[in-house]
Every structure is written in structure tokens, then in C-alpha cells.
Amino acid sequence: MGRRRNKRVYVQILKLVGEGHTAKRISELLKASLQNIYNKLRKLEKEGLIKINRNAFPSILELTPKGKVWLKRATLNEISDRERQSRKPSSKIRVHNLQVVIPILKRGKGLPVEKRVPINNWVRKILNVRLPFPVTIEETTKSVRVYVHEFFLPRTSKDYMKAFEYLHKVIVTVNSFFIQHGWILDLLGLKVINQEIANIMPEIKDASLSPAKVKFGRKAKGLNGKDMEQRAKAWIDFSPGKGIPEVETNDSVYETRFLMMPEHLEQISKNIEDIGKFARSHEGLITTITTKTLPELNEMLKKINSRLGEL
Questions:
Q1: Which of 49, 112, 142, 234 has CB atoms 3.0–4.6 Å from 249's, for a disulfide?
Q2: Is 233 helix (H, G, I), strand (E, B) or coil?
Q3: CA–CA separation, 193 vs 125, rounded Å?
Q4: Is the same domain home to 58 and 155?
Q5: Contact of 29 with 16, CB cutoff 8 Å
Q6: Which whole number is the average pLDDT over 55-76?
Q7: Has residue 79 got a pLDDT over 50?
Q8: Among 138, 134, 147, CA closest to 112
Q9: Are 67 and 182 part of one and the same domain?
Q10: In this structure, are residues 108 and 178 in contact, taking their beta carbons and an 8 Å threshold?
Q11: Cis (ω within 30 of 0) for the bond into 58?
Q12: Are residues 250 and 115 part of one domain?
């Protein structure tokens, strides 16, 4: 089938054959000589990937069943290679099952929420605030529980910090909502009691991948920066309904320091590249500074020190 570097050319030829092009048209599209294309077509015919009907003029080219299978497999491999080169280890972060407990300092009236109640519509009507994801509240004996069901974030260090901003917005909105009804909540006593941060991994297509779990032997750190009662852990799971692998954790420290390490390294690499570009574009200036300006400044400092010594 030729050398490895020619494989892409053969894939292109097979695609064009499948589209019904003649040898002359293929040579024009690939900007190759007609003789070169004829040679490759003969090799493809010898491999049993195409049929050439030489009784027609111009010759009719056709993919064989074997050629169709080979082309499909080669195309899938080509797509996978591009994905591996262009994709980050995780393309999205899915924060879900976020639960916050806020102690009650004073109960108001007219707000029966013994059961879980969605508050998005209420908040929009009373406070004119639109929450970008479903939020539910529940009253317990001593506290109000806030449930944030799910929201997505782009996978970058900067965008991940928006998770904390979202949490802050939810808490402020919920507190304002309760104040409208005469309740007073203890925001200083707020606790995050559950959170699940899922790193979606669409590039992993291994169906045999099984769920796994690891524990870190310490308390998990919540999105609010405080320790949770839960123990820190991470696990491999599959997104509901889609079967896409997810690396999940309930610990913000593990998320930012380890699961996001590829993004940190990419940013460092970009910074180094930017420094290199700056150095190359200002080579003359840097040379002047290092060979002339710095020695002159050093000499000036020596004179100042000498003068200060005399004084």
C-alpha cells in the first residue's frame, strides 16, 4: 500500500473514487501528474480496493466492498488522530448535585418549603433575577438546604473559578428571596455538604473502561474554600444517558491541582512561547540592554557608591 507517509494520499484518492471522479479529475484535484495517479490507482486495484473498467472511456473507477471498509476505517483513524492532537484531556466540567446548608436565625411567615421546591420562577417574579440553572430549596428543622442540580463550564482554570461565582450568586439570591419573606439566614454558618465535579472525557471511547474509585484520606474542600464533612475522593463514572466517561471528584483541591494539570501546563507552555516571541522580535533591544545599558548602569552605581563612601 506504499509507505506510511503516502497513506493520506491513498485515502484522498479512495474518497475521490467513491465520489465518482475520473483519474484525470483526481489528478487535477490533488495537483499531481496523471501518470502518478495512474500508478497509485493500479496499486489500489492490485490490493483489491478499487475496480477499473477500462472498456469505458474514460475508465470508470469504483470502490470494492473491501475498499469501502478500508476507507471507512482509515477515515475514522484520521479523525481520532486529529482529535487526540487538538483536544485537551477534558473539554467540559459538569458541576452537579451541589448542596449547601444555611442555618436559620429567624423564621418568617408565608413560605412553606418543607418539601423540595424549585425557586427559579419565584426568584424571577419577586427579585427579577434569572438563575442560569435549576435551583431547589428545602426547609429542615434548623436550616435551609439549597440544591443546585447541574451546570456546565468550559475547561480552563479561569472559567473553573466561575463555579465559585455561580455558587455565590445562588446564595445571595436565595438569601434575598428569604429576606423578602421575613426570614434571616446565617450566611457565616453556610456549609457545602455535597458537590460532584465531573470532567467529561469524550475522547475516551474504550467501552471496557470500568468504574473505579480512589480516596485521599482527608476532608474534601468545597467550592467555597472550606472543608466539607465528606472525605475527599475521585472516581471514574459514565455520564447519564450518553455513556461518555467522566472523571469525577468531590474535592476542589484535587480538581484544580491534578485534574486540571494539563491546562496549567498548556498555559505555562504558551507563556514560554510568548516570551520567546517577544525575545525574537526585540532581539536588538535586548542585545543593547545586556551589552551596553547594563554595564553603563553598573559603572554609574559604582561611582555613586564611591561618592557616598567619601561623604
A1: 234
A2: strand
A3: 29
A4: no
A5: yes
A6: 80
A7: no
A8: 138
A9: no
A10: yes
A11: yes
A12: yes
* Bigger pLDDT: 105 vs 278: 105
Count of structural domains, the chain: 3
Confidence of residue 103 (pLDDT cuts 50, 70, 90): very high
H-only helix segments in the chain: 7-18, 23-30, 34-46, 65-86, 120-126, 157-160, 162-179, 252-254, 261-281, 283-288, 294-310
Sign, CA torsion 278/279/283/285: positive
Q: Is 145 left (phi over 0), alpha (psi -120 to 50) or beta?
A: beta
Cα–Cα dist 310/92, whole Å? 67
Residues 144-187 pLDDT 10s: 899 988 888 776 656 667 777 888 888 888 888 888 888 889 98
Q: Say yes or no: 304 and 199 in one domain.
A: no
pLDDT tens across 224-260, in order?
A: 888 998 898 888 776 555 556 777 888 888 887 777 6
Could you list the residue range(s) of the whole structural domain that residue 143 is in?
92-259
**Do 72 and 157 lie in a common domain?**
no
pLDDT band, very low/low/confident/very high, at 101 (cuts 50, 70, 90):
very high
Residues 125, 110: Cα–Cα separation, whole Å:
16
Angle separating helix axes 34-46 and 7-18, nearest 10 degrees: 90
121 and 64 belong to one structural domain: no
Identify residue 170 by its one-letter amino acid code: V
Name residue 44's amino acid. L
> Of 261 and 118, which is predicted with more confidence?
118
Q: Name the residue type at position 237.
A: D
Residues 238, 116, single domain; the answer is yes
